[in-house]
Design brief:
The structure is a homodimer. By secondary structure, the first copy, chain A, is α+β, with helices and mostly antiparallel strands. Helices cover about 35% and strands about 25% of the residues of chain A. Chain A is built from 11 helices and 15 strands. In chain A, the strands form 3 sheets. The first copy, chain A, has a 6-stranded mixed sheet. In chain A, strands 3-9-8-7-6 form a 5-stranded mixed sheet, with helices on both faces. In chain A, strands 1-2-4-5 form a 4-stranded mixed sheet, with helices on both faces. In chain A, strand 6 and strand 7 form a beta hairpin. In chain A, helix 2 runs parallel beside helix 3 and helix 7 packs across helix 9. The longest helix of chain A is centred in the middle third of the chain and has 21 residues. Chain A is globular. About 0% of the residues of chain A have low confidence. Chains A and B meet through helix 8, helix 9, strand 13 and helix 11 of A and helix 8, helix 9, strand 13 and helix 11 of B.
């Protein structure tokens, strides 16, 4: 099926080259298509790495091995296969990953554990080793490519390439962070898994990079949802080459650490929101703002209950200010809530306060807000200081069409 | 909007009258419609009652008060309002319920706490007290009606009336259990809340009736899902008049207690499945069978994760044997699972065993099975003896149309 570009798409940003990072692409033809589907990114010696991975217990070999590799903290290359997720493929799937790692390691004269592999696409079919071997051989000889080409090559059902960029000054040196990501049916196991990669020329100790990435993921990648389903392959990796020449960051006390952390968080937030903007069938980008919860974590759970509710998402698709469905979603979250302290609003207008519809509720500004592309839902629990922001998209006929009408 | 009768509907069963139970219906016109929307059921003196209620913390006054009333264990009447859920309406909603209880109690010369009230329909609008008062006055004078008429009158977006019947022999006496239920967008807060009522002429101690109802709900009402959303008003009440003349059941040791418990469970299962058969937009009835889990409760959670997965439900709507999506749903459930011991099947044919696609997997029988109306998904965890069965329906364009295309 041909997918139209999402109406919520953003243009690909101007991302400069990152010292010590060289992306290349090639055609491995993992599926019967004529497009680039193999991405290779080479890193300078001394590059550090951190990663966050799916919590799905039925994860792929790529995820299992990646979890082990990031503990070592060093990276020389990244290989991303698009069109085959290589998940639920047993020992044959693992052999394919080990083959790719060995082939690249031989070329770079590094350890296989320095080579990170991701795969995304259909599951239950072992990655074909012959295609992988030929594809890797080709890509190792290919010319360097643009970030936009790399972003397009890691995509599957994505309708637009997704990238983000941020800069920071660290110890007097300007550093750049570039990110690319793929994912749309968040977090479908076939053809729509979230894979994100962040590259920086900053020098960052691997353990500190891991600490920053984990913290940033908490209110970015872990605060988006398209359909509540959790992929078997979700991976976000951050690579730091150190070529900017700053004194390596190892703790928050180091000069520039705060600025770098803020820039990393910014890239993570941009990338996370881009995945929602390409949500399958999405017509509206929805920001759910929770305040007054007992804790931030409670607010996040309530926000995800609202953002995952099919009834809330279809109401917004229908431009219906159905705040009762938001009440329902808050109530089912399993978190502390008091019906008689609960307030619900849309786009800055309260529809209900303290457990009752507002006597002078004027639906006109809410109706106008809901006709737009960018929707805000506000929930105040009236209990404490906990707050969270969660992003999702509406649930439309397009989602059903993509996932039911066409055989995968 | 006019809703077509669900293709999964079953005919209304022949339910006899139950000694000590008299249903009546009337037009309160809670909405701008010309249909009966107020159901009144009168019980003989000495009737016992038990109930199970939504866990949604934003529940309605009816639920709050009903929870208190069942502790007293006695019932003389039930009033069900359709068209207005009276939820999230603060003190004004509560006053409307208290008015109905007082009006019926005066008529029957009983305590207000003997009168149970439920409401279903749009939320956030206080039940109009004038319409309720006139409607109750009318229904108290109305002729008795059939069970099918009562089942139709408690319905809102339901596309067919839902009833169930079972019999048992208790201490040498034949007893009958009749049930009616409404609900389709399981468990939407507006126009689609699950309300179920079970009536029997058996004599059953209230505490024992509660014990049996709670146990039966665990693997019936608590094992169905349409869209994962949980109503603010869900209620199931069981009333036992004692008119069959059996020695009252008070414990499992009593003669006939097992038979009564089995009949009650049977009625609960029938009613629960009928709600799924009227799931919004449903084209297929799906039974998810989980075995080999670490515990029954773990199996139930995994079953619900599969049954709530939009990707699994859309795949079945598309008649696509996409077992990878089932793997994903199992993995995200947060329950013990081992990818390499997991087996997935459809309609009795395994597609994957022990973490890998079957080498000789023949998709033909699976494809034929998925073309039918009644679908079975089998999951074996390979870990222990825990098992569960969960029922749901597919996710189709009809669900989106009902919930997004029409303003409520």
């Amino acid at each position: 099926m041909d997918l139209e570009r999402s109406p919520l798409a953003l243009p690909f940003p101007a991302i400069p080259s990152i010292a010590g990072v060289t992306p290349r692409i090639a055609r491995a033809r993992y599926k019967d298509w004529d497009r680039c589907d193999l991405t290779y990114v080479e890193f300078a010696e001394g590059t550090t790495v951190a990663g966050v991975f799916t919590r799905n217990v039925c994860c792929s070999s790529e995820v299992e091995m990646g979890r082990e590799q990031v503990r070592l903290g060093r990276a020389r290359a990244l290989v991303v296969n698009a069109g085959n997720a290589n998940a639920f493929t047993g020992y044959r799937g693992r052999e394919a990953v080990e083959q790719i790692m060995a082939q690249v390691a031989q070329h770079l004269d590094c350890k296989p554990s320095d080579v990170f592999v991701s795969s995304t696409g259909v599951i239950g079919v072992p990655l074909p080793k012959d295609k992988a071997r030929a594809g890797v051989a080709t890509v190792l000889e290919a010319d360097p490519c643009s970030w936009e080409d790399a972003a397009a090559t890691i995509g599957t059902t994505d309708t637009f390439p997704k990238g983000a960029v941020a800069t920071a000054v660290v110890g007097g040196r300007a550093v750049t962070l570039a990110g690319i990501i793929k994912g749309s049916g968040m977090i479908a196991p076939d053809m729509a898994t979230m894979l994100g990669y962040i590259f920086t020329d900053a020098a960052v100790d691997a353990a500190f990079l891991q600490q920053l990435l984990t913290a940033s993921a908490g209110d970015t990648f872990n605060c988006i949802t398209v359909d509540s389903d959790t992929s078997t392959s979700d991976t976000v990796l951050a690579f730091a080459t150190g070529k900017a020449g700053n004194a390596p960051l190892a703790a928050f006390d180091d000069p520039g650490a705060d600025a770098f952390a803020a820039a990393l968080h910014d890239v993570c937030r941009q990338l996370a929101q881009l995945v929602v903007r390409d949500g399958e069938g999405a017509q509206k980008f929805i920001e759910v703002r929770i305040s007054g919860a007992e804790s931030d974590e409670s607010a996040r759970r309530i926000g995800l209950a609202v953002a995952n509710s099919p009834l809330v998402k279809t109401a917004i698709a229908g431009e219906d200010a159905n705040w009762g469905r938001v009440v329902m979603a808050v109530g089912k979250a399993g978190e502390p809530a008091d019906r008689d302290k609960l307030s619900i609003g849309f786009g800055g207008t309260w529809a209900a306060r303290d457990g009752q519809p507002l006597a002078d509720y004027d639906e006109a500004p809410v109706a106008a807000h809901l006709k737009g592309r960018e929707i805000q839902v506000e929930v105040d629990l009236g209990l404490g200081d906990g707050h969270a922001v969660v992003w999702t998209c509406d649930l439309t006929h397009g989602y059903i069409a993509i996932n039911a009408d066409y055989r995968s």
